[in-house]
Design a protein that fits this description.
The chain is built from no helices and 16 strands. It is an all-beta fold. Strand 14 and strand 15 form a beta hairpin. It is globular.
């Protein structure tokens, strides 16, 4: 079964990771909120209050155009009341799934666009990156407000085959990405460890704002690391410079420095981190996927 715990441990030289597969453009037009909400990242649970997140959310008003993030064939377009694409019927509401033209490690790649208000494509259509496929809505279980739920699925078009979209979206110009792994003494990923990413010295401090971002490692369950990395946290769109990454298990903290460069993926790894003494089990249902 797919899952973080089943992913082999990655070994890279310090600060380096495989070439990123940042194939996807932003699924929203200029002027819209085209960055993922930081409060509910892939693999997170909002401190146990929500279902483990299998994608990322772009918070925009109802009716905002939704664009294809990559070229490919529409394999699903409609409501998921009868055709179940998530853990329950009508989970995504109005939803479009596109199988990308490109494959990854000989596996098909699917991009899912959920909670749409309207759909402007049909199954079997070919769409180019940037073409309109629908509009932002609040259908399905999007009770928290209008947003685009965005997933990347590798191998199979199902809920258990997702990957972190932040590793697939092309960073903003002059921005880079960061991924990392927090593992215990047996090499297993540590779930829901606190991770703080703080800029120490930016290359262009007059142009770029300082960064101080908190996130968590992926929770256990049907979340998946990238096959080539085995990461359990990732962060996109970082200004170039030197960063301090700090990991906490609730009792102890450890830090490392890492350099982020434009259009590159930086890597950091923490080994022999003790599992948190306690962590909140994730609920089986929530207001959003």
């Amino acid at each position: 079964m797919p899952g973080v715990s089943a992913t082999p441990r990655a070994v890279f030289p310090a600060g380096l990771a495989p070439a990123p597969h940042a194939w996807l453009v932003r699924p929203l037009p200029e002027g819209a909120v085209d960055y993922p909400a930081g409060t509910y990242r892939y693999g997170s649970t909002q401190r146990g209050n929500l279902r483990p997140h299998h994608g990322v959310d772009f918070e925009n008003p109802v009716g905002t155009l939704v664009l294809a993030a990559g070229s490919g064939a529409v394999v699903f377009a409609g409501t998921d009341r009868a055709d179940q694409l998530g853990p329950a019927p009508n989970f995504y509401g109005n939803v479009v799934v596109v199988q990308l033209q490109q494959a990854y490690l000989y596996q098909p790649v699917y991009v899912l666009y959920g909670h749409l208000a309207t759909i402007t494509v049909q199954r079997g259509n070919w769409v180019e990156a940037g073409a309109q496929i629908g509009t932002v809505g609040g259908t399905g279980v999007a009770f928290g407000g209008a947003h685009l739920h965005f997933e990347v699925r590798v191998g199979y078009n199902d809920y258990d085959s997702t990957r972190n979209p932040e590793l697939w979206l092309r960073p903003y110009p002059r921005r880079g990405s960061l991924a990392g792994r927090v593992s215990d003494s047996s090499g297993q990923p540590v779930p829901l460890a606190g991770v703080t990413v703080r800029s120490q010295l930016l290359d262009n401090p007059k142009l770029d704002q300082s960064v101080n971002t908190y996130l968590t490692t992926y929770t256990i369950g049907t979340l998946n690391a990238d096959e080539m990395m085995g990461e359990n946290f990732a962060l996109n769109d970082l200004p170039p410079g030197t960063y301090v990454v700090t990991v906490s298990n609730g009792k102890t903290t450890r830090s490392q420095s890492v350099s982020v460069k434009p259009a590159e993926l930086a890597w950091v790894e923490f080994e022999n981190v003790k599992q948190p003494a306690t962590w909140t089990p994730t609920p089986t249902a929530s207001a959003t996927p």
